[in-house]
Design goal:
By secondary structure, this protein is of the alpha/beta class. The chain is built from 11 helices and 13 strands. The chain folds into 3 domains: 137 residues, Rossmann fold (3-Layer(aba) Sandwich); 155 residues, Rossmann fold (3-Layer(aba) Sandwich), CATH 3.40.50.1370; 44 residues, SH3 type barrels (Roll). Bound molecules: phosphoric acid mono(formamide)ester. Phosphoric acid mono(formamide)ester binds next to helix 2.
């Protein structure tokens, strides 16, 4: 299914050269933001946030305002006609006729993909449930480029809620495309990285290992990416409480780390990094959030400057076959074509919205 517009749903829909060009533009904008102050004069960006956000929503809004554009949108669907039962299709159809670019965050996997099918302007995925968060990844790549001067040859530890963490899913998919990166997944057995992300890393030629203890590996890391245990993604409070406080980065653990290791975190933080670590020069998470504005300015300019559209659905609908993931948008919005593609394995179908696999 071809769209007239270039959407950003998953960074891996684009070649690495597209991301690196965008990151380089982000660096240029950071150096001379005033040079871009009128690039989006007369343009309108709509931010549709069906789920809470501080950084993503406000950095997108700041980015558009700093480019000279204007913003509309909602940050609480209860105050919009979503509360009356309006579908993503209808909301998107309407808002995309008001705006030049639409940014969507939603609690359900595949929601931005669903929006892109009916949108009359480019759609940007600002986080879809526990699935992907590509613009956080652009922020992370920009931060690594500025603070580590490279996107290659890094040992990256990712710690915490790796099963539900859309930021780490997008980041691993992206960084595994660059040479000689090695991943160390630090989590409890219950919160391990999903199999499909590990398969992508391997297919891209990168390596990973899985460990339980942060202090055993922190000394080998160039980058430590901490994540929050996401209470909102657990089926019950008991399951969340069993995982809470498993990993806490504190001053003692930082003593074991390399002098040039950097600590990243997409934020918000709850209790997985103690406040004393904020004073450590290697703590880069507040700087990372600041760089998010430059990454999103570069993204808005790039997407609005593109000619030609994206293919929104590339797979096929198989009669009677639907996704088994209850957190997939196709199980929330019935009208959507239930489109699947084959994974590398001929017996496995992958849902095009949430990447969940299904044996056939
Ligand atoms: N990093 C991130 O997505 O933060 P928000 O949830 O505050 O947008």
């Amino acid at each position: 299914m071809q769209s007239e517009y270039q959407h950003l749903i998953d960074l891996n829909d684009f070649p690495v050269s597209w991301w690196t060009k965008l990151v380089d533009l982000g660096v240029k904008i950071k150096e001379n933001p005033q040079d871009y102050a009128h690039e989006c004069d007369g343009k309108i960006m709509a931010t549709l946030f069906y789920e809470p956000s501080t950084r993503t929503q406000m950095s997108f809004q700041t980015a558009m305002l700093r480019l000279g554009g204007r913003i509309i949108g909602f940050d609480n669907p209860a105050n919009s006609s979503v509360a009356k039962g309006e579908t993503i299709k209808d909301t998107t159809k309407i808002v995309s006729s008001y705006a030049d670019i639409l940014v969507m965050r939603h609690p359900v996997a595949g929601a931005a993909k669903a929006a892109s099918i009916s949108a009359d302007c480019p759609v940007i995925n600002a986080g879809d449930g526990g699935h992907l968060h590509p613009t956080q990844t652009l922020t992370d790549l920009l931060t690594l480029k500025i603070e580590k001067k490279t996107l290659c040859g890094l040992t990256i530890g990712l710690c915490g809620d790796l099963i539900n963490g859309r930021t780490v899913h997008s980041l691993c998919k992206a960084l595994s495309m660059f040479e000689d990166n090695k991943f160390i997944f630090i989590s409890t057995p219950e919160l391990r990285m999903p199999a499909y992300i590990k398969d992508i890393i391997t297919a891209n030629g990168s390596t990973f290992e899985e460990v339980d203890a942060l202090d055993e590996v922190i000394g080998s890391l160039d980058v430590l990416y901490m994540t929050r245990i996401q209470q909102e993604r657990f089926a019950s409070r008991e399951e969340y409480l069993a995982q809470k406080n498993t990993y806490v980065l504190d001053r003692e653990k930082m003593l074991l780390a390399k002098k040039d290791m950097i600590v990243l975190h997409p934020l918000p933080r709850v209790d997985e990094i103690t406040v004393e670590v904020d004073e450590d020069s290697r703590a880069m998470y507040f700087t990372q959030a600041k760089y998010g504005v430059f990454a999103r300015m570069a993204l808005i300019l790039t997407i609005l400057g593109e000619n030609g559209g994206s293919e929104t659905l590339k797979g096929k609908v198989y009669s009677g076959v639907r996704c088994d993931n209850p957190k997939c948008i196709t199980n929330h919005e019935e009208y959507l074509p239930k489109s699947f593609r084959f994974s590398g394995d001929e017996t496995l179908l992958e849902c095009e919205y949430c990447d969940e696999r299904k044996l056939i």
